[in-house]
C-alpha cells in the first residue's frame, strides 16, 4: 500500500484510493499527492490481479474481494500505530474505473458495506450489479462525456440506482483516464471537486456541497446535478 501523508501533526481524515484495471497506485500518484496536500492521509493499495506491475494474470472478477481488502486497509491504518496521523472516525473511499466499482461496493453493496466509510467518490464506475443496501452515505459521482472505456451512460445508471445523497459532476468532453492522471483542463476541476466534497462530508470543514454546486455552475467544463 502506497501512502501519502499531509504535513503537520494530524490526525487527518483517511482516504483509501482504489486504482483501475491494468493500472496501479503509482499511475495515480499525482492525484493522491494532490488530495494529501488538501489535508487527507491517502492510502492506495495495489491489487495483484488488476495492477500489471505485480506480474499476475489480470482478472476483473475479484472486485468483491478487493472491497474486503479496502476494509482491511481501513482497519490497518486506523489502529494504534497510526493514531497520531489518521482520524479513524473520518474515512472515505475514492476509486477510478474498476476502483470506482469497488468503492461503490464498500459504500452500498450487499455483503460488502463498511459502516466506517462516511463518503464515497466514484469516478467512471460501471452500474452496480449486486444488491444495494439502503444508505445515507453521500456519493460524489464523476464521469466524462467522452469516456472511451466506460460509457457515460454508466454513471447515469448509478445515479438512478442509489437512494443516497448524490452529487453528480459531469466533465464535459473529458475522456476516461486523462482528467485524473493530470494535465487536462478538467484536472484542477476534478481535484477541487473531490477535495471540497470530502471536506464537506467527511472532514466537516469548508463551505459544503451547496457552495460546490454554485462554483461548478459557473464552469463550462462541467455539468452538475444532485439528489437526496
3D architecture notes:
The protein is an alpha/beta fold. Helices cover 33% and strands 21% of the residues. It has 7 helices and 8 strands; from the N terminus they run ββαβαβαββαβαααβ. The chain has helices spanning 29-37, 63-77, 98-108, 152-161, 178-181, 187-203, 209-217, and strands spanning 2-4, 12-18, 41-44, 86-96, 119-123, 139-144, 166-171, 222-227. It has an 8-stranded mixed beta sheet with strand order 1-3-2-4-5-6-7-8, with helices on both faces. Strand 6 (139-144), helix 4 and strand 7 (166-171) form a beta-alpha-beta unit. The longest helix is centred in the last third of the chain and has 17 residues, at 187-203. It is globular and about 45 Å long.
Quick take:
The chain is of the alpha/beta class. The protein contains 7 helices and 8 strands. Strand 6, helix 4 and strand 7 (166-171) form a beta-alpha-beta unit.
Order of helices and strands: EEHEHEHEEHEHHHE
Alpha-beta content class: alpha/beta
Kindly report how far apart the N and C termini lie: 34 Å
What is the overall shape?
Answer: globular
Strands side by side in the biggest sheet: 1-3-2-4-5-6-7-8
The fraction of residues in strands falls at 15-25%
Number of strands: 8
| Number of helical segments with 4 or more residues | 7
Mean pLDDT: 91
Rg over alpha carbons: 16 Å
Multimerization status? single chain
Helix content: 25-40%
**Biggest sheet architecture:** 8 strands, mixed
Low-confidence stretches: none
SSE layout:
Elements: E1 2-4, E2 12-18, H1 29-37, E3 41-44, H2 63-77, E4 86-96, H3 98-108, E5 119-123, E6 139-144, H4 152-161, E7 166-171, H5 178-181, H6 187-203, H7 209-217, E8 222-227
Helix pairs in contact: 2-3
Amino acid at each position: 500500500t502506497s501512502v501519502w501523508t499531509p504535513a503537520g501533526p494530524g490526525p487527518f481524515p483517511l482516504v483509501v484510493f482504489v486504482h483501475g484495471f491494468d493500472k496501479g497506485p503509482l499511475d495515480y500518484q499525482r492525484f493522491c499527492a494532490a488530495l494529501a496536500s488538501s489535508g487527507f492521509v491517502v492510502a492506495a493499495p495495489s491489487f495483484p490481479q488488476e495492477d500489471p506491475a505485480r506480474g499476475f494474470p489480470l482478472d476483473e472478477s475479484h472486485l468483491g474481494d478487493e472491497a474486503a481488502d479496502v476494509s482491511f486497509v481501513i482497519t490497518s491504518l486506523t489502529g494504534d500505530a497510526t493514531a497520531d496521523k489518521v482520524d479513524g472516525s473520518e474515512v472515505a473511499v475514492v476509486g477510478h474505473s474498476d476502483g470506482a466499482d469497488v468503492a461503490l461496493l464498500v459504500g452500498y453493496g450487499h455483503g460488502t458495506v463498511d459502516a466506517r466509510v462516511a463518503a464515497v467518490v466514484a469516478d467512471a464506475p460501471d452500474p452496480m450489479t449486486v444488491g444495494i443496501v439502503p444508505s445515507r452515505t453521500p456519493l460524489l459521482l464523476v464521469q466524462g462525456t467522452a469516456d472511451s472505456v466506460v460509457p457515460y451512460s454508466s454513471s447515469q445508471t448509478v445515479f438512478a440506482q442509489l437512494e443516497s445523497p448524490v452529487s453528480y459532476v459531469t466533465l464535459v468532453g473529458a475522456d476516461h483516464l486523462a482528467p485524473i492522471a493530470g494535465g487536462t483542463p478538467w484536472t484542477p476541476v476534478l481535484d477541487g471537486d473531490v477535495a471540497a466534497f470530502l471536506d464537506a462530508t467527511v472532514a466537516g470543514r469548508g463551505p459544503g456541497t451547496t457552495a460546490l454546486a454554485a462554483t461548478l455552475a459557473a464552469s463550462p467544463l462541467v455539468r452538475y446535478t444532485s439528489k437526496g
